[in-house]
Amino acid sequence: MQLAKEVKYLIHKEVLLEWRSKYTINGVLLYVVSTIFTCYLSFVSLGDKLTWNALFWIIMLFASINGVSKSFLQETKGQQLYSYILASPAAVLISKTVYNTLLMLVLTTIALGFYTMVFDTFTPPDMMMYYIAVVLGSISFSTVFTMVSAIASKAGNGGMLMAILSFPIIIPVLILLIKLAKNAVDGLPWENSFDEIGMLLVVNVLMVATSLLLFPYLWRD
Amino acid sequence: MNKTWWKILGSVLVVYTAIAGLLLGVPHLPILNETIRNLYFHVPMWFAMIVLFSISVFYSIKSLSTKSEIDDIKAVESVNAGIIFGILGLITGAIWAKYTWGQFWSFDPKQNFAAISILLYFAYLILRNAIDEEQKRAKISAIYNIFAFPMMVVLLFVLPRLKDSLHPGNGGNPGFNSYDLDSRMRMVFYPACLGWILIGYWVYTIRFRIRSIENKQQHN
């Protein structure tokens, strides 16, 4: 119960901080929109639905690296010490992950809307399934990147380490996500996608479990 | 003698499989033909790599609780030795693929995922280089190593099964362990696996000893 209370308080703190400055959400939103716009200007139209799908996920990957990596890298030593005294490591990790998931959900939803609007030559026939893929993508990106950004911030060498450490871990997840989204793009019946959805959930549970086990060691300096 | 018996056993087994693997009879199958002998040289590399990476994770977990420098050196040296075997596995696989699939690298899921899992361990080594403070380096790299290990297992054993692959054992292709691994091949294959695992472990212990001597010299 203590944990739930701490998590709730910390999420509230994160949201409040973000609400005051609105820096991350607006920054990443502008990043996504300008990337999509740049892609639009260079591609003009995407006739091929596979390219449409792949391009969306590449944009989402870089946007989420930028968005989620802020969670630990941006905090000062003092802020970390403050939450170290205030809460248990598990509560810190869970609250960050949940907050990042919420952030990514808002972001990817807006991005998907803008993306389908700009590249209107094609829309997935099974939008519901595609949205499920997007939701699962937000969850997986935030579970993996939150832990990796904690590792990178403790190593004290932010940006480049973040990319090097997270890419090999995120590639298998990304492959599953693209496969799932491709099923939606092809308009396959839902039964065909259960394998990928199950795999993604298993990978996420695995990632969260290992993060929870390891984070206390990382947090204590 | 009781300390070196496994080294002798490993060497004898590897020499035996190198000779017997090239000379003994093998079943003749279409497409594979004589390239089936690659089983003795390609698959044991992966077994040795998995064993070495498991040793590394074991010592990473141990070093988190003991905080001893020796455990940290053991973890990193077994990764170093494991990467050698991983690269050898990729090369032997690519040479085999040239003769059966027609290309060294044909973007088969198994090849790609194996390459990505090697990348994971290169990332681990780069992470180590990025941190100067020894205690901190031991802790953070141990955490990344443990975090990456389940992902490597997913990459090597789970994902290739969801994809269509030309690799034997996948996508309806006959695996070596189904009907075509006859008793003649077993006579060479099992000793080869054991032999290469022992040689891999030997490489790791030598590397560990060199590293700890270097460390001692630095401290003095």
The SS-based structural class of chain A is mainly alpha
SS-derived structural category of chain B: mainly alpha
- Total count of strands of chain B: 0
- Please provide the ordered H/E string of secondary-structure elements of chain B: HHHHHH
Assign an overall shape of chain A: globular
Strand content of chain B: under 5%
Mean pLDDT across every amino acid position of chain A: 87
Residue runs with pLDDT of under 50 for 5 or more positions of chain B: none
Helix content of chain B: over 70%
Largest interface, C-beta within 8 A? A-B, 29 and 27 residues
| Fraction of residues in helix of chain A | over 70%
End-to-end distance of chain A: 26 Å
Report the principal-axis shape of chain B. Answer: globular
Question: Describe the biggest sheet of chain B?
Answer: none
Question: Low-confidence parts of chain A, pLDDT < 50 over ≥5 residues?
Answer: none
Quick recap of the structure?
Chain A is mostly helical and 221 residues long. Helix content of chain A is 86%, strand content 0%.
How would you portray this structure in words?
The complex is a heterodimer of chains A (221) and B (220). With 221 residues, chain A is mainly α. Chain A is 86% helix and 0% strand. Chain A is globular, with a radius of gyration of 18 Å. The model of chain A has no long low-confidence stretch (mean pLDDT 87). Chain B contains six helices and no strands. With 220 residues, chain B is mostly helical. The mean pLDDT of chain B is 86. Chain B starts with a helix and ends with a helix. In chain B, α2 packs parallel to α6. The chains are: A mainly alpha (221), B mainly alpha (220). Chains A and B meet through α6, α7 and α8 of A and α4 and α5 of B.
